């Protein structure tokens, strides 16, 4: 596909050109120099493979941090369904950043957003997805002493005043231009970005002084935070810094959609996982003979990208998968079997951690009286 | 003045023709038959003088009530400044309705609205006005066992979920058409009407069954509740019924503005009250001689209307003021002195009740766990 592509917080379509996005959004590449300022940055899978590759003001934030000025992390999830592997990529990277810097993290569940933007979703649906998604988040091993989960509809009393201040600074024109709203957009959706801005300022509000904030997120979320960054100085806050990730492609060859067989959900059983992996779209050829002769294409292959993002941390082994794929030495069936065994292993471990998370979920609840 | 007039929740300008408003807004007049269904209705000052004169679905609500189906009351205040006499008119009428029917009342302080719509107002300003206005409300003698005050920024956790449901049903087109929004309107203002809708449904939410709601308010607030009424059936609620009042004219001859000498504030001292009353605009003539000869015009006189709305409950005495005014027997100076002594008396009593209200304000706080 050589056509155009669309990336907004609510739509990712076409074949995304991540280099073009840097130009289109006006962000900056993460340079080797910047990576060297992140403890363990050179060894970090997502940074060394350029899966988190773009930023805003990361240089400023790391500069301040180098002078002993601590920052905090903020990321989140729009709970519209179960959690799939693609959702967990930025969470895993965020946990790594939290460990590298030893800093606080606010994780926002934007259940209000999902209710407002998805016609058929009820508040009961989003509540159920919130409870579900939280377990996957906690299962990844976040330090409960340094991590707080904000659920918008549950914690709105701690968000609303700052959301009002943000909302007062954003006109309908601005919201329409950034998010592509129309006259038929509902008035809750128009307001919502104000609520998503709040965690970028919440630590400053709680501490009573400006605290820098770093937001790791999929680059599709950048439009929200462009608005947040424009408003910040008007309200006397620092602009939040951003670090942008690429999105794990879906197994069926397009976006990792929230429905169908494109994504592996954390609640899928092994049989379902097997079906999804073994039926995945690949960069392979029509016949074995052809593939042996001409080789396949890992660049467009979601199976390859699953190794790259999550399931083959060893760069040498990943390189071998790529080389053998291109040369025709590795056939798709074998490659899928290899991925499947790694996914099954991950899933069996995750299921246990996810079950344990039910006992500790209360420890992560946002409570401004207990400053972490 | 014969020109056009504007009545919206945020603007009242020109000389309001209340009969034209009934046509323009598509409301109904309160008939003698309806008044007779309100306990003490025929004797009620505001009803018998047609100061509360228009309604939506009051017949339906009183019909249900007659069959033993109780309703509740909802009114409110946008706390942007101190309380003036004009603010208290619908509150006094609401208290009378509460007493007549022995029903619950929710009083909403829309501090979020005032912050969003008034450029120069901070959340500290609206918090201060809220604390101030509450005392005047309580001083009017509402039954604390049956009355709860909702402060939007304080109680948003009890409002937000229903506000989201309302917001999801209102498009930008609708909000723009009803409220006259433009592209430069801030996104908080666009969302706000959703929050003002919630108390019309809150008793149904708390009770888990549909409870009819009656909203006494100035007719300028009707646009908000037109939207609320349109949305109600989509969410499975009854449409709230409305009972609309006229607005007490300002002492300087136009709208009872929130600034200047047009309004008597509950915190004004006697000297200030005297200055405002004695300097009031009237329907009088240029000279005493002329007035004795030609008479004056009570219809356009705010001093006369202050008697009519609040300070002369005796219809015979009010009629005499009117007749003597028209005939030229009553001069404006004497009439103002008469009003002044009544206002001073009211203010001295109100000051004491207002001071006492500081002790009981906590009894009115909204708390869904203690259902009233």
Can you give me a brief rundown of this structure?
Chain A is α/β, with parallel strands linked by helices. Helix content of chain A is 50%, strand content 11%. Chain A folds into 2 domains: 6-247, 3-Layer(aba) Sandwich (Rossmann fold), CATH 3.40.50; 270-356, Tyrosyl-Transfer RNA Synthetase, CATH 1.10.240.
Task: Reconstruct the topology from this structure.
The structure is a homodimer of 372-residue chains.
Chain A: E1 6-8, E2 11-13, H1 18-25, E3 28-29, H2 32-36, H3 45-48, E4 52-56, H4 58-66, E5 72-77, H5 85-101, E6 105-109, H6 111-117, H7 123-139, E7 147-151, H8 152-155, H9 160-167, H10 172-179, H11 187-197, H12 199-207, E8 213-218, H13 222-231, E9 241-245, H14 270-278, H15 288-294, H16 302-311, H17 315-327, H18 332-360
Parallel strand pairs in A: 5-6, 5-8, 6-7, 8-9
Antiparallel strand pairs in A: 1-2, 3-4, 4-9
What do you see in this structure?
The structure is a homodimer. The first copy, chain A, has helices at about 20-25, 30-35, 45-50, 60-65, 85-100, 110-115, 125-140, 150-155, 160-165, 170-180, 185-195, 200-205, 220-230, 270-280, 290-295, 300-310, 315-325, 330-360, and strands spanning about 5-10, 10-15, 30, 50-55, 70-75, 105-110, 145-150, 215-220, 240-245. In chain A, the strands form 2 sheets. In chain A, strands 3-4-9-8-5-6-7 form a 7-stranded mixed beta sheet, sandwiched between helices. Chain A has a two-stranded antiparallel sheet with strand order 1-2. Chain A is of the alpha/beta class and about 375 residues long. Chain A is about 50% helix and about 10% strand. In chain A, strand 8 (about 215-220), helix 13 (about 220-230) and strand 9 (about 240-245) form a beta-alpha-beta unit. The longest helix of chain A is centred in the last third of the chain and has 29 residues, at about 330-360. Chain A has 2 domains: about 5-245, 3-Layer(aba) Sandwich (Rossmann fold); about 270-355, Tyrosyl-Transfer RNA Synthetase (Orthogonal Bundle). The interface of A and B includes residues 169, 181 and 183 of A.
């Amino acid at each position: 596909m050589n056509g155009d592509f669309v990336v907004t917080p609510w739509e990712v379509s076409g074949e995304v050109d991540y280099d073009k996005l840097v130009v289109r959004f006006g962000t900056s590449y993460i340079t080797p120099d910047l990576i060297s300022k992140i403890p363990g940055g050179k060894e970090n899978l997502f940074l060394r493979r350029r899966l988190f590759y773009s930023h805003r003001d990361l240089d400023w934030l790391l500069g301040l941090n180098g002078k002993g000025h601590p920052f905090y992390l903020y990321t989140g999830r729009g709970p519209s369904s179960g959690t799939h592997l693609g959702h967990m990529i930025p969470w895993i990277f965020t946990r790594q950043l939290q460990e590298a810097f030893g800093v606080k993290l606010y994780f926002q569940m934007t259940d209000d957003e999902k209710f407002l933007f998805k016609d058929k979703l009820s508040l009961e649906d989003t509540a159920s997805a919130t409870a579900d998604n939280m377990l996957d988040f906690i299962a990844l091993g976040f330090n409960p002493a340094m991590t707080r989960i904000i659920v918008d509809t549950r914690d709105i009393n701690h968000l609303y005043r700052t959301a009002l201040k943000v909302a007062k600074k954003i006109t309908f024109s601005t919201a329409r231009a950034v998010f592509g709203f129309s006259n038929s957009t509902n008035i809750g959706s128009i307001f919502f970005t104000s609520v998503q801005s709040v965690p970028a300022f919440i630590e400053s509000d709680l501490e009573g002084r400006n605290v820098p904030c770093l937001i790791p997120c999929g680059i599709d979320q950048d439009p929200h935070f462009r608005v947040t960054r424009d408003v910040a100085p008007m309200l006397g806050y620092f602009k939040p810094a951003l670090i942008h990730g690429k999105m794990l492609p879906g197994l069926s060859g397009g976006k990792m959609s929230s429905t169908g067989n494109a994504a592996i959900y954390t609640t899928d059983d092994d049989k379902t996982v097997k079906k999804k992996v073994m039926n995945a779209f690949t960069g392979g050829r029509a016949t074995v003979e052809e593939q042996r002769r001409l080789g396949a294409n890992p660049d467009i292959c979601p199976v390859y990208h699953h190794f790259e993002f999550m399931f083959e941390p060893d760069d040498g082994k990943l390189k071998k998968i790529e080389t053998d794929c291109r040369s025709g030495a590795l056939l798709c069936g074998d490659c899928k079997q290899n991925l499947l065994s790694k996914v099954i292993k991950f899933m069996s471990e995750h299921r246990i951690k996810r079950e344990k998370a039910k006992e500790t979920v209360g420890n992560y609840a946002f409570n401004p009286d207990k400053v972490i």
